[in-house]
Each structure stands twice: as C-alpha cells, then as structure tokens.
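Hi L.,

You mentioned the student needs an example of a multi-chain input paired with its predicted structure. This one should do, with 497 residues in total across all chains.
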Amino acid sequence: MAEKKRYGMAIDLRRCTGCKACQVACKSENGVPLGVFRSWVKEVETGTYPNVRKHFLPRLCNHCKNPVCVRNCPVGASYKREDGVVWLDKSKCIGCRYCVASCPYQSRFIDPNDKVADSCNFCMHRIDNGLVPACVNTCPGRARIFGDLNDPKSEISRVIGTNPVQVLKPETGLNPSVFYIGADGNTLRGSEIK
Amino acid sequence: MNAKLVYDAFHEPAFGYIVVTYFFLAAIAAGSFITSAAVELFGLKENRALARIGALVTPFVMLVVGLIMILELAQPSRFYAVVITLNPTSAMSWGAKVLILFAVASVIYAWNALKGAFQPKWLSVAGIALAVLMAVYPPLELVQTKASPLWQSSVLPVLYLAGALLAGTSAAVLIAAVGSASATASKSGAQSAAAAERNPALCVGRCLSGLLVFSLVLVAIELITLASGSNEARMIASAILSGKFATLFWGLYVIVGSAMPIAILLGAARNRSLQALAAVLILVGIYALRVIEVVGGQSFPLT
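Structure written out for the whole complex:
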C-alpha cells in the first residue's frame, strides 16, 4: 500500500533574493489582515563594511509532524490532516491564544477580524485542487519547492535528499516539514541578535 | 561576526497582564482553600478564624477568576466549549475542568463555613486535591509550550504551588486584619477584636517566612539553570537579573516582596498590623514574579 502523503516545503536560501513576493502573494491569496502574517521574510545583515552580506529567512508554519499547537489546543480545534497540513477548525476555536503561546516558530496569531487563531495552511484550497501554495507559485527565484515528502520521486524528496538541509529549532522535537538549504547561522538565531 | 536584524514580523505576545492577573487570583483562591482546609483537617483551633476567612474568600475569587478566563478569550461566547470538550494532552483543557470542580467544592465548603456546619473530611481532602491542581495547572500550561526557555522548567509548578500558599494565606491575613480593624472601630466588635489580638493565628509568621525562603531558593535554581543554558536562556536570565525586568525582580520581588516581609514576620510575628503589611508586600512580590514569568517569557523573538 502506498504511504500517505506528507506535504512539506524546501526553501533554497541561495536562490532567495528577499523580494518578499511570497509575503505579498500570501497576503493577497488568503486575505490576511493588516499587521499579521502567515508568511514573512526575516532579514539579517552580517559582517562589517566592505565584507558584508544580507541573509533572508522566509518563514511560515512548519507543519510539524508532532505539532505542539494540536497537542495543546484545549478544545481540539487545531488538527493535523492526513497529508500533514496543520490547520484548525475556526468554528471551534475559542481564541484562548494557547496555540499562539505554544508555537516556537511564532507562526500562529489571532486574526484581528475573525477573532480566532490563524496561520499558514500551505494554501489548502490550492493544494487540494492540484496547485502549489501561492508563495511557491509566485517565487521569482524558484527558491521554494513544495511536494510530498513521502514520495521518493517528488522534486522535494530529491532536493532534500541531495542537499544539506536544516530545520528550525530541531531540539524541540516537533519534526517540522519545512526545510532550509544554505541557511546562515545568524538568520536562525532568535533573540541574541535583537 | 557582527549580525544585525533588519526585519522580522512583529509578534504580539499571546499572554498579557490579564493572564498574569488570572494566574495571580487563581493562586490566591487555591492557596486560601488549601490553608483553610488544612487547618480544619488538622484541628488547629488557634487558626480557625483565619481558616474561616480563607473558606469564605475562595468562591468570590473563583468567580472573578472564571470571569477573567471568559473575557480573556477572543471568542468569549464560545467559552463553554472548553468545559464540554476534553483534549487529554492539553493542560488548559484539564485546567478548565479543574476550575469548575474546584469552584463547586469551594462554594460548598464556604456554605458550610458560613453556617458553622461540620466540614466533611472527604470535602476537605477532595478540595485540597483540586486546589493543588488549580495552583499547578497554570504553570503546567507554560511548561507544555515549546516557546520559551523560561517556561521549560520543572521547578515552575512547585514555585507556583508555594506562591499559591503564600498568596492565599497572605490574602486571609490581610482580610483578617481589615476585619479586625473595622471590628475595633465598632463598640460591639471591640471585645472580640481585642481577643483576636491577644490570640493571633499560630505559625503564620514562621510559615510565610519559610515559604518565602523556599520560593527564593526555587527562583535561584531556575535562574542558575537559565544562566547555564542556551543563548536564549542566558538572554532571559540576564534580562531578569540586570536587564529590563531587573527592577521588577530585585525591587518588587526580592526586596519588597520577599526580604521585607521576612524581616517583618520574623521581627514582629504577633503584631496583626505588621502581619497585614507583610501580607500586602508578599502579594505585591508574587504579582511581580508572575509578570516576570509570563511577560518575560515572551519578551524575546524566538527564531
């Protein structure tokens, strides 16, 4: 029997130019309100002139294999689909913010309009119809690769299998489905560079 | 190498001062019930008056706790869902049930105390068990997250339990002192107030001082653990010890909320007014510590 799908994303940071087209496409596709983001691009500058470089880290929900938001949701509104997409039933969400506080990736937020939790869902409405998420579709550098991690023939499996990849905060044991290629250590650091 | 953050999305902290107040009041409710029921269970006659206050205070505090819990939700009208749904892996889901059961137990207990009726032993024992759960479920909520090194601590639930006992007893001592002062003001109550002044509750000074020292030791353990942890953990430790939370920590928690009450309680253990002053200082210190734990835990970007 074929293994179930597990959707994931690989982001090749060597190809990312920090244009933020993914951030805009996400906002536009999903009607994300002002002031909150399902996907954004973190920017870090390193070095001293003239030896300087700018690093970009596109961010989104990591669609963890062991999602802490699902484990902690007091009403069972947060759930993980069979294909690995982490999402929530907005009609059940009570807006307690526990998932927001629990996520080490700061992916969840309270939608200021709907007053319920929200985050990236890999553009569920698109992938269910055979399309790729809006951020993947729009990326001019083709830095984002989306697909089935359990299909050895998929592009994402090939890319992850043949490149050194990294996930964010592997020590949490959440087992994210978003992988980064060519990540600079400074972009992965959180508080220390503030 | 120099590294400078140029842009990151702003993330509003999930838990703010309303949650801090919720944790603080839950501690008062749980602590006042535990000390009150323990006095009844162990038959400490000298502390009966204080125990009665504790029993009567708990349901009122629980009412406020429940209202805060509902109003803090982004969808307050859906609060019932957390009562009727159980996610067995969520501390918050269990906590909501504990909250309801404890509120019911505290109302029955207070009713018996008001009527001067006998408190069944099972009610005291079950109530204490629920109160302990009430005191430790908020820190377990924090422990269950994966967000902050400050919250990933096995010390936290014990610290909160000690804080609940401190807050509950302090609230009862404070109310007893206010009650005594108003009784002294009225002629009819003067005699009983004078009697109460002659026979103050036993152990209050020493018990509170002991708990304060115990809490300080736990906080020190927590800070030592943080200071020897990851970069993020060290950042939080230094923010508490010498950064933006230093005034709250050293000023309000260590000096005002711990050292001063210890000095007062050990120096003038049988003076009610000074006991009341110490109780106020303890409550201030516990609130400051809750602010540091809850707000401080979210004060740094994570990734």
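You could point out the following to them. DSSP finds seven helices and ten strands in chain A. The first helix of chain A runs from residue 21 to 30.

Best wishes,
N.
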